[in-house]
Amino acid sequence: LAAPPDIGLGLTWATIADPGNRAFNDDERGFPFVLEPRHTGAVDYTFDIMNTEVTAAAQLEFVTAYWNHANLATPTAPTAADAIDLIGRDFIGLANPDAAPGQDPGFFVREANRNKPAQMGWRNWARFANWLHNDKALAPEAFATGAYDTATFESDGITILDNMEALPGARVRLPNLNEWTKAMHWDPAKDNGAGGYWLYPHSSDEIPIQGALEDGGETDANMSAFVDFEQADVDAYPNALSPWGLFGGIGGESEALDATGLDLIGPSLVIVKGDDFTGFPDGSFSLVAVDDVSGTGVSNPIGARFIFIPATPGTVALLAGLMTAGMLRRR
Questions:
Q1: DSSP state, 90?
Q2: N or C: the chain end with fewer CB closer than 10 Å?
Q3: Sign, CA torsion 250/253/254/260
Q4: Which residues have a Cβ under 8 Å from the Cβ of 40 and sit 6 or more positions away?
Q5: What is the radius of gyration, based on Cα positions, of the chain?
Q6: CB of 196 within 8 A of CB of 243?
Q7: What is the residue-wise DSSP string for 220-279?
Q8: Residue 289 in contact with residue 283, Cβ under 8 Å?
Q9: pTM of the full predicted structure?
Q10: What ranges in the chain are assigned the alpha helix state H?
Q11: What average pLDDT does range 45-52 have in this prediction?
Q12: How many CA atoms lie within 13 A of 98 on its CB side?
């Protein structure tokens, strides 16, 4: 598959080219390292990434499909209480919150919230990636594997045992730290075409302005402190795009990452990047620094955007060979 899947609902993809770009330099960091510098951002292949975070409307499509087709009644039938991890904090509601085991709790999203950023736990984002990888097939296995092996999703009570690295051949998955950093900060045209990194993911070395777009704002980060300010839509700030045209590198929701190439920073944490509606975009640890990451619990509600990796010519040839061999065996 050479083109990313059509997620629908108006969600689109941006192509991140310039393969072989360098990692960022120490002097592009802007302030002292909190952790040892990782020098991230180098990616030697082209990939596609969603222009925005996943919306509540897209989340609704996923959670409805997952609830009705993932064979959740085995070994025990779920109740409405089990749906909470699927709906995050705010924008997905339950029409039937007292649903008996096995009954549909009636997921819904209000029209005004359809374009707000979705919120789910990391494990459900991995299941969503599996579903997209499998072209939204309505079968239990479509949610269980493809991009991530959900059979590893367990804990010994202290340590998360999940394999948070994508499976080989995953076409749709969460971005890793290098990919997210490149998509949000690397600008091939910076420094007269030499290429460089912006400190913040809105093509600037200056802290973004908080507030509504009509007031000159560039982010809704930390605006939850203002009771009369609602969280913005995922595409609310066209004046604050990454060099590749991405919305929401600051604000919206902190975004789930794939753990490839990272040492997890705690025994019960998953990796997130970017700031959110409840955090201040001051460039400190775990917020918008190009090098720092933060962690959260495996079920804590966070946002995400997916990436798509086109199949390489070698992979296409291998798949074609396997399909041909299969047809020959059936004759």
A1: T
A2: C
A3: negative
A4: 23, 24, 177, 178, 181, 290, 291
A5: 20
A6: no
A7: -TTGGGSTT-PPPPTT--TTS--TT----SSSS--EE---TT---SSTT-EEEES--TTS
A8: yes
A9: 0.86
A10: 56-69, 84-87, 122-133, 140-144, 177-185, 313-330
A11: 97
A12: 0
CA-to-CA distance for 247 and 288, rounded, in angstroms? 14
Evaluate the CA torsion angle 260, 265, 270, 273 in order and state its sign. Answer: negative
Over the stretch 89-134, which tens digit does the pLDDT of each residue have? 668 888 887 777 667 788 889 899 999 999 888 888 999 999 999 9
Nearest to 270 by CA among 284, 283, 285, 254: 254
Q: Which residues contact 124 (CB under 8 A, 6 or more apart)?
A: 63, 66, 85, 86
CA–CA gap between residue 125 and residue 304 (Å, rounded): 7
3-class DSSP string for 293-323: CEEECCCCCEECCCEECCCCHHHHHHHHHHH
Amino acid at 261: G
Maximum pairwise Cα distance, the chain:
68
Q: How many CB atoms lie within 10 A of CB 271?
A: 26
